[in-house]
Amino acid sequence: MVVMMSTNPRATVTPPATFVIIPTYNEANNLPAIVSALFALAIDNLHIVIVDDNSPDRTGDVAERLRRTHPRHLHVMHRPGKLGLGSAYRDGFRFALDQGADLIIQMDADFSHSPDLPHRIPAPHPDL
């Protein structure tokens, strides 16, 4: 959590930047629903990072359309081919850390992880 000082005697607190990393390969049908479910949680400063491995079902195009709807909070990484789940998470985590993430959550696009997972994780302690 970042605390910004102002001329006002009260400090302004910025909500923690929460990043959800979603690797995709042939998830064009699932992606709009999972993105909608996550943004419906109304978590302040929530970012979604979609890491697509050049899906033949055009998941990357679906992700770009969704990004236009949420330009400041949905990020899309296009990789040249099927490079694997582990490296997709690694690349997504690196991006999130470079953007100043306070909390990073990994999630699958197929709803094998409940989309309300971010609500069940406590916010980072301000002293950490």
Tell me the series of helices and strands, N- to C-terminal.
EEEHEHEHEH
List unreliable stretches of 5+ residues.
Answer: 1-11
| Share in helix | 25-40%
Global Rg = 16 Å
What class, by secondary structure content? alpha/beta
- Provide the β-strand percentage band: 15-25%
Strand order of the largest sheet: 5-4-3-6
Summed over residues and divided by their number, the pLDDT gives a mean of: 85
- Given the C-alpha coordinates, what overall shape results? globular
Distance between the termini: 8 Å
The number of helical segments is: 4
Count of distinct strands: 6
Largest sheet: 4 strands, parallel
Topology of helices and strands:
Blueprint: E1 2-4, E2 12-14, E3 18-24, H1 31-39, E4 46-52, H2 59-69, E5 74-78, H3 85-98, E6 103-106, H4 117-120
Parallel strand pairs: 3-4, 3-6, 4-5
Antiparallel strand pairs: 1-2
